[in-house]
Amino acid sequence: MENSIIKIQGLKKVYNPDTIPVFALNGINLEIEEGEFIAIVGPSGSGKSTLLNMIGGLDSPSEGSVEIGGIKIDELDSKKLIDFRLKNIGFVFQDYSLLPVLTAKENVAFVMQLQGQADQKCNKRAEELLTAVGLQERMNNRPAKLSGGQQQRVAVARALASKPKFILADEPTANLDSKSTSDLLDIMLQLNKEEKITFIFSTHDQRVIDKARRVVWVVDGKIDKDERK
Amino acid sequence: MLLKLAWKNLWRNKVRSRTIILSIILGLTGGIFSVALFNGLTEQKLSNAIETQTAHIQIHKKKFLDDYDIRKSIHNHNLVSKTIKENPLVKGYVTRVVTTGMMTSASGGSGVQAFGVDPKEEKKVSKIYDRIIDGKYFEGIKKNPIVIGEKLAEKLDAKVRSKIVLNTQDKEGNIVGSAFRVVGIFKTNSSNFDEANVFVKKKDLWKLLKANGSIHEIAVVVEDEDLSDKVKEGFVSKLDSKLEIETWKEIQPELAVMSDFSERVYLFFIAIILIALGFGILNTMLMAIFERTKEIGVLMAVGMSKSKVFGMIILESTFLALIGATLGMILSITLISWTGSSGINLSAFQQGFESFGVGTIIYPQLSIGFYFQLMLMVILSAILFSIYPAFKALKLNPVEAIRSK
User: Fold this and answer.
1) What is the model's pLDDT at position A1?
2) Does residue B77 fall inside a structural domain?
């Protein structure tokens, strides 16, 4: 594929290789194009979270490679990898994982500040992003004062803050009710459509699967099915 | 950004942060006050000894102090005095006639050291005049006045205007004696000194000793105690080698030892304070990292560099130490200023303190430099003890940390 931003080749992850080997990933080949809205689906223990960790540079493969924008991230040292994540990847976690001591705006601006951007610029963009996810009224609230759905929208805004190449979302709707899930998906779909942001989810949630334009089924560490809608 | 985050993190568990800050305040205040009290005690003993006994520098003929033989007087003392006077670091000096003898009254006797002084000149060097508790300092009695210590007065059952006799040896070795009338009774902080030293007029002692014009001791006070050694060196290079020139440290080596020892005690106190403070911070930061494992994993995942994570932990503990140390020092300075001017009355231990050479009212004191040094050491200690928790945070694997509860 010409527009691939992610190329995964022969990816394997083996735990306990010297005793009782467990293949979390067993030869994954996958290419993801810019602007995709893709769900990685599979039962618990299938390897979908491990695959997401590999794409996010949070874990290193036992074999194979992950290439993002032409860079093999498994060959980067720890320092460069952190810097790479900061500049290229946005993360959304299942339990939101916002910093409880910072307000919604500060949480979003924080990632840009890590990049060394000026405070004024960070604050302006944080406000824009929070407005985009419908939280213009709650910018100065701390996470404890926000609902689960609102917190996850802050997390999406935070993930977008650094203008990443793509966003990795690990079961982002697992803790949300139907209304919050629907709102969140609408926002992400809108961002995907209008801003061409690439979203990669791992999920069990049928509502997310239904909205995804590509669904990759992972079973026993292998891709079982790759379906485009 | 890191400063803001570290500061906010500090207050996420208010009870824990306040507890450790309170323990730093109390630990530092207790430690600093103990040091100030001990310092006040030492300074009091030193200044008391210098003001009433040794001055900063004493000059005698060599070996005079071995047997107090009055024939070992300082020759050409006028020339010596001139050299002393010319030194700009010298604040004042006096010449004295010194002998040893037996002071007796109808009630008993006691061995003493008698100093023949010029009362007016003596005030430049000794503060005995300021310690008179009964009678006056060489005023009111013209013939053979004597100033004695309270302890000796008690022993001889003597009061102001009582007649007492000084028996000694004259220049020719004859036993001689003369009656003196008590004109004043002094009380220093050292009961031992008060029992064993008497002051008479120089001319009266010369007459008794048949040693007119003899000078046995020159006591010198310099502008600053710390200059004693330097001034002494100047004298040594200019004065007769037959003279023995000693600073107060050499005259009373136990005082010098005490002064040095007190510095070690300060270090010991400070070390205890800093170690206790350090372990408090270590424990607090380890708990904080344990509780925030997931959060630190997320920070690393979203791109917070290891140096920034490290810096954040160090900053948090530095803030803790800085707040505790600042408040502790404010409390200490207030406490020391208050007790330093009013004094702490320890009259319950009067006997022990007087034998030790200090008064029963202790004035805690510390130099400003000590606070600055301590503040710097507290911060360094906080940084040092937070290095381990910070490294522990760095070793976290983001994937495992994010999965943790």
Assistant:
1) 57
2) yes
Nearby residues of B241 by Cβ (< 8 Å), 6 or more positions away: none
Are B337 and B390 in the same domain?
yes
Hey, of A97, A140, A167, which one would you mutate to test binding to chain B, going by the most B CBs within 10 A of its CB? A97
In a domain, B251, yes or no: no
| Amino acid identity for residue A15 in this structure | Y
Structure tokens at B136: 């006056």
**Per the domain annotation, does B248 fall within a domain?**
no
Tell whether A156 lies on the interface with B, counting CB pairs under 8 A: no
Low-confidence residues in chain B, pLDDT < 50: none
Per DSSP, the residues of B217-239 read EEEEEESSGGGHHHHHHHHHHHS
How much is the pLDDT for A132? 87
Task: Give the whole-angstrom CA distance, residue B188 versus residue A7.
Answer: 92
Retrieve residue B106's tokens.
């109808």
Domain that holds residue B214: 63-241
Please tell me the predicted confidence (pLDDT) of residue B119.
Answer: 94
Tell me the β-bridge partners of A41: A203, A217
Cα A33 to Cα A87, A196, A199, A224, B395: the distances in Å are 18, 11, 10, 19, 34
Residues of B in contact with A119 (CB under 8 A): 1
The predicted structure's pLDDT at residue B262: 78
CA-CA distance, A77 to A82, in Å (whole number)? 9
The answer to whether the Cβ–Cβ distance between A82 and B304 falls below 8 Å is yes
How many domains does chain A fold into? 1
The CATH number of residue A17's host domain is 3.40.50.300
Tell me the residue range of the domain where A59 lies: 4-228
The pLDDT value recorded for residue B357 is 64
Chain A residues close to B11, C-beta within 8 Å: 101
